[in-house]
Design goal:
By secondary structure, this protein is an alpha+beta fold. The protein contains 8 helices and 15 strands. Strands 7, 8, 9, 10, 11, 12, 13, 14 and 15 form a 9-stranded mixed β-sheet that branches. α6 (207-218) packs across α8 (266-281).
């Protein structure tokens, strides 16, 4: 069955979907996006993703293409049309198509594109084995709190990781880890504290990571919202990353150093389990 996607009001087979070559998302990366997980056919923590979309749009003075309720209706229809049980729904808003000019175009309607992707999330083998990451310099712009489609630095970071034989990259700025190429970064120190960089313009306010921190607090775990260095990460008892499309993934090797016994750590495994229980409970 060909995938049905959504483009500016129309539900189309993916081969028939079209966007103008003048779309500012294509020409300037002048667009924002969101990725919501789908588990058991249902969206996970979607309201928080839409709240972040509203914020991203506002920060870039971009016109809203549809209300939250309308977006949810489209997301649900795509899930149904594509019979998606597990995976993600991607949505992208751009400033629309206009003659190429750096200045915002006047009275141009924004573009709204959405599609589904099947993905094994619950039984992701990386959740059992853990992954290796490498650190790379964070060469991104200074508004990483806005979820823009300007992802080239993340693409390069990921590619660098793969070339080094690792699965992903953590980015480093001023000696401290900012976040993953498409995830938030966490360590668990040998005295049991969960450390992650505090929210600021330096990182994306990850919806999954925030939910995980709330679960950790509920479990009475100690949380230190404080940046950490790669060296502190090498010495950590555990490390993990979070994102909508992977939930919680253990990190077992950083820059070639094995953490603990090289197995996913107990805190990480527990937080992944608690997150999944919460997500499946709706
Ligand atoms: N990326 N930091 C960055 C740079 C990200 O791109 C992402 C998510 C996150 C985690 O945010 P959340 O928990 O809200 O998914 C942090 C998505 C999954 C992507 O680009 O595919």
């Amino acid at each position: 069955m060909p995938r049905t996607v959504y483009v500016n009001g129309a539900y189309l087979p993916e081969s028939a979907a079209r966007i103008s070559i003048f779309d500012r998302g294509f020409l300037f990366a002048d667009g924002v996006y969101e990725v919501s997980a789908v588990l058991d056919g249902r969206l996970v923590d979607n309201a928080a993703h839409l709240a972040r979309l509203t914020r991203s749009l506002g920060e870039l003075h971009m016109v809203r293409p549809a209300s939250d309720d309308e977006i949810v209706a489209i997301q649900r229809k795509l899930i149904a049309l594509n019979d998606l049980r597990e995976g993600i729904v991607y949505l992208q808003v751009t400033r629309g198509a206009a003659e190429r000019d750096f200045a915002y175009p006047k009275e141009v309607a924004p573009s709204l594109v959405m599609f589904t992707q099947e993905k094994i999330i619950l039984n992701n083998p990386a959740a059992r084995s853990g992954i290796a990451i490498v650190t790379v310099p964070d060469i991104r712009w200074r508004r990483r709190d806005i979820k823009t489609v300007g992802l080239l630095a993340a693409v390069l970071a990921k590619e660098c990781a793969l070339e080094a034989g690792a699965e992903d990259a953590w980015m480093v700025e001023d000696g401290h880890v900012t976040e993953g190429s498409s995830s938030n970064a966490f360590i668990v120190t040998t005295d049991g504290a969960i450390m992650t960089r505090p929210l600021s313009n330096d990182i994306l306010n990850g919806i999954t990571g925030r939910a995980v921190l709330r679960l950790a607090a509920r479990e009475g775990l100690r949380i230190k919202e404080q940046g950490f260095t790669p060296e502190e990460a090498y010495e950590a008892a555990e490390a993990f990353l979070t994102s909508a499309s992977t939930l919680v993934i253990p990190v077992v090797r950083i820059d070639g150093r094995t953490l603990g016994n090289g197995e996913p750590g107990a805190v990480t495994v527990k937080l992944r389990r608690l997150y999944i229980e919460m997500a499946l409970a709706g």
